[in-house]
Amino acid sequence: MREEDIVPIIFEDGQDVDLILNSTAPQSVYSLILDHGLATKRFLYLDYKGEHDQEIVNYIMDYELSHQITLATMEELEELGSIEYEYLPDKITETNKLLSPKDYGLFSYPTEGDFYALFITKLENKDKLLQVELLVDDWIPERERYIQYYS
């Protein structure tokens, strides 16, 4: 699978897909996806040190509202927001335990910086998303060059 093939999986809106795939910018598809995801708030930007003020919970609620679906109850979201964790992947794992019964997951898009770019999508796309090497940089560990799903 090519990186172009994951664009419609991450961005369900055809206008977003066209904008990225037909861009004349001299950037790679990897960079176009990351920049567009952050600019449109389709990606949740989190510092490696963690989150502030229940950003993951708010992101889930925004996703639910924009897609008119329910991924979790308010009680489940409150419980998720109160979780103490040492490393952000631990919180992402807990989030995926909450989202997976609804066939959704919180994925981490690879970045070259010291932040996480997270996005929600359907789990039916998981295998496709996890097999595309997006970063070609020998300084970054191989595992970190791919989209990740923490379970």
Alpha plus pi helix count: 7
**Spans with pLDDT under 50 lasting ≥5 residues?**
none
Can you tell me the overall shape? globular
Kindly provide the radius of gyration, computed on alpha-carbon positions and rounded to a whole number of angstroms: 15 Å
Percent of residues in helices comes to 40-55%
Q: Report the sheet with the most strands, covering strand number, pairing sense and barrel closure.
A: 4 strands, antiparallel
Query: In order across it, which strands form the biggest sheet?
Result: 1-3-2-4
Please give the alpha-carbon distance between the first and last residues. Answer: 23 Å
| Overall SS class | alpha+beta
What's the assembly state of these chains? single chain
Number of beta strands = 4
The chain-level mean pLDDT equals: 91
How much beta, percentage-wise?
5-15%
The helix/strand order is HHHEHHHEEHE
Walk me through this protein's architecture.
The protein is of the alpha+beta class and 151 residues long. 43% of the residues lie in helices and 13% in strands. The chain contains 7 helices and 4 strands, in the order αααβαααββαβ. Strands 1-3-2-4 form a 4-stranded antiparallel β-sheet, with helices on both faces. A hairpin with a 5-residue loop joins strand 2 and strand 3. It is globular and about 45 Å long. The protein starts with a helix and ends with a strand.
